[in-house]
Amino acid sequence: MIWNEIILVTGMAAVTLLIRWPPLALASRVALPQPVVDALKFIPPAVLAAIVVPAMLTPNGTLDVHPSNAYLVAGVASGLLAWRTRNLLATILFGMIFFLIWRRLW
Questions:
Q1: What are phi and psi of 87, to 5 degrees?
Q2: Max Cα separation, the chain?
Q3: What angle do CA 22, 41, 97 make, to 5 degrees?
Q4: I want to staple 74 with a disulfide (CB 3.0 to 4.6 A). Which of 10, 86, 94, 99 is the partner?
Q5: Where do the H-state alpha helices sit in the chain?
Q6: pLDDT mean for each 10 residues of the chain (106 residues)
Q7: Dist. CA 25–CA 34, nearest whole Å
Q8: DSSP-derived secondary structure letter, 106
Q9: CA 32 from chain center: how many Å?
Q10: Could you please report the per-residue DSSP string of 37-65?
Q11: Running DSSP on this structure, what letter comes out for residue 87?
Q12: pLDDT at position 9, please?
């Protein structure tokens, strides 16, 4: 039974490597135009927003923009703290603690 998991993980690793390695190898040998390099810097925040915002706005599968939505309130508060301080660790800790306290209060 353990061999099934080992084969599955190995297969997933191989597929991931085969999909991601060729573009990275090619990009390292080609000089990308500066506008492309500048645009690539926006990919991580865009992906993070695409993951986090739907989870904050629809925690139960429907749109919930009320103060009782601890995900939304803690996400907005954490976003403000991140914008103000630029400290990732403080933002994560603050967001988790704020979420738990807000959830307990409501």
A1: -110, 110
A2: 55
A3: 115
A4: 99
A5: 2-29, 34-40, 43-57, 70-85, 88-105
A6: 92 95 85 91 94 94 93 96 95 97 93
A7: 19
A8: -
A9: 26
A10: HHHHTTHHHHHHHHHHHHHHH-TTSS---
A11: -
A12: 96
Q: Which two tokens stand for residue 12?
A: 């997933």
Give, in order, the Cα–Cα distances in Å from 68 to each of 52, 58, 74, 86: 18, 12, 11, 27
pLDDT at 74: 96
State both tokens at 83.
């914008």
Token pair for residue 77?
């508060």
pTM assigned to the model = 0.66
Instruction: Give the number of other Cβ atoms within 10 Å of residue 58's Cβ.
Output: 15
